[in-house]
Amino acid sequence: MNENIQKYTEYCLNCPVKPCSQKGCPLNNDIPAFIKQVKEGNVEEAYKILSQTTVLGSICGRICPHLKQCEGSCVRGIKGEPVQIGEIEAYVFDEALKNEWYKRIEKTEKLAGKKVAVVGGGPAGLTCSAFLARSGSEVTIYEKYNKLGGILAHGIPEFRLEKDILEKTINSILSLGIHVEFGKELGKNISLKELEENYDAIFLGFGANIPSKMNIEGEDLEGVYGGNSLLEYGNHPNYQGKKVAVIGGGNVAMDCSRTIKRLGAEKVYVIYRRAEKQMPAEVKEIAEAKEEGIEFLFQNNIVKILGDKKVEKIECIKTELVKKEGETREVPINIENSNYEMDMDYVVMAVGSSPEKEVLEGLGLELNKWGYLAVDENHRTSNKKIFAGGDLAGDKGTVAWAARAGRDAACAIGDGLILHKL
Ligand code: SF4
Known about the structure:
It contains 15 helices and 16 strands. It has 422 residues and is α/β, with parallel strands linked by helices. It folds into 3 domains: 3-104, Fumarate Reductase Iron-sulfur Protein, Chain B, domain 2 (Orthogonal Bundle); 115-209 and 355-418, FAD/NAD(P)-binding domain, CATH 3.50.50.60; 211-352, 3-Layer(bba) Sandwich (FAD/NAD(P)-binding domain), CATH 3.50.50.60. The strands form 4 sheets. The protein has a 5-stranded parallel β-sheet, with helices on both faces. Strands 6-14-7-8-9 form a 5-stranded parallel β-sheet. Strands 10, 11, 12 and 13 form a 4-stranded antiparallel β-sheet that branches. Helix 13 (283-291) links the parallel strand 8 (267-272) and strand 9 (295-298). Helix 7 (123-134) packs parallel to helix 15 (399-418). The model has no long low-confidence stretch (mean pLDDT 94). The structure holds iron/sulfur cluster (SF4). Iron/sulfur cluster is lined by residues 12-15, 19-20, 31-32, 74-76, 83, 85.
């Protein structure tokens, strides 16, 4: 075993109340228990423990915002560095992929003869499919692209998640006997009605891929891109010698800025209207972006994009953070007359994304007041046979939370099928 991994496991206190698992980990992975097994050299046993709650360990171990999740709740972090939980998890799952331990995970026949359709092969869909297939259900994934992974395949750059790891993870899930129909998009070449006729239950797990807009002047100029689309389709312009402004403070903003810098941009600015400590991006990603030469303009907001046909300049304004009644965190307020202009060649909007409105509305399912699919605590939609999770149900936007939605839905679907309630 790698020396560092051994050291990390010895640093864990094996806390009986498990704050890392219970408070920190969206999947409630039994962190002290799996770390103890690794420490004692039983890595396959550690994998078995983790497998009860996750099938994406190699991925979550690499890309989760650990300091905001498990490591952020680690007791060791109170006075010093937290245990490197992510690295230990990735190590265990990488070993499982290498040694094909996933082939030895126990399956049951509880759902034998039951057919479930899963729409979307991202983290929610893959996790839901895996847990259903482990219970003996016949699962078919309908995926609009010609490869699985969703955001993992199209939205996360290679320097954060190696394609090889993703491919092996997907293969380990498909080895459970899951069938995949590629090139199938709901509302285009398959309908919900068709699926309802052919399956006992349906899980909708396609994500959100329409980049949100800020609705500012100049947003329609040539040279303005949506961050998600840029990462998803990879059709970047030539950045050589160019100046690029990336607007936003999440991991998409970090991934875009680092990708663009690596593609040769002369200057890449991340413009974020709040303070650094309020950035939703993982601390590690921010530090790495800084090391790579990305410039951060905290407490600055873009107000206009200027140019004739294409982007030539941007106008920004400085902000101050103000405590407002009823708000849990300080709110950025524009400082009057602090506007200034910067020469710019491209602007990338990384301010969030949402599911395709027409697609959601066309499903004939109830929507909630925010425009997402309305689901109950079991991820069931207004149609008792149809479940949904991840971005389209407005779940928290990290991979681990999407996986949690997929796993919970699989559990609810399983219970519903066994009890003949669907
Ligand atoms: Fe180990 Fe930290 Fe979890 Fe305690 S909180 S069991 S030290 S990882």
